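Dear support,

I submitted the protein below through the web form. The confirmation email said the job was done, but the results page showed an empty box. After a refresh the structure appeared. I'm attaching both so you can tell me whether what I see now is the final result or a partial one.
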Amino acid sequence: MRIEAYTQVQQVYGAKNRAKTQNVAKNAGSDRIQISSIGRDIQIAKNAVAAADDIRSELTAPIKASIANGSYNVSGESFAEKLMKQYEEMKGL
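What the results page shows now:
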């Protein structure tokens, strides 16, 4: 078995691998990213939603106060009507 031939082949492949590594290193510095205007608008909207409160206190504060006072009263008929209306809207009737 000739070991010299193996080392010569290994040197040839090693030279090709080093050349590829150098080419990749040269091109690595030229990467750029561009975000479209739609992408920027979406990012702005996401940030606005994240910054907004989950609960609108101007609507919930009066209800909480009336519950605390014991004066909050829900009509069963009114609740049922709204529930059926919502159900019909979901079903597309």
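Response: this is the final, complete result; the empty box was a page-load delay. DSSP finds four helices and no strands in the chain.
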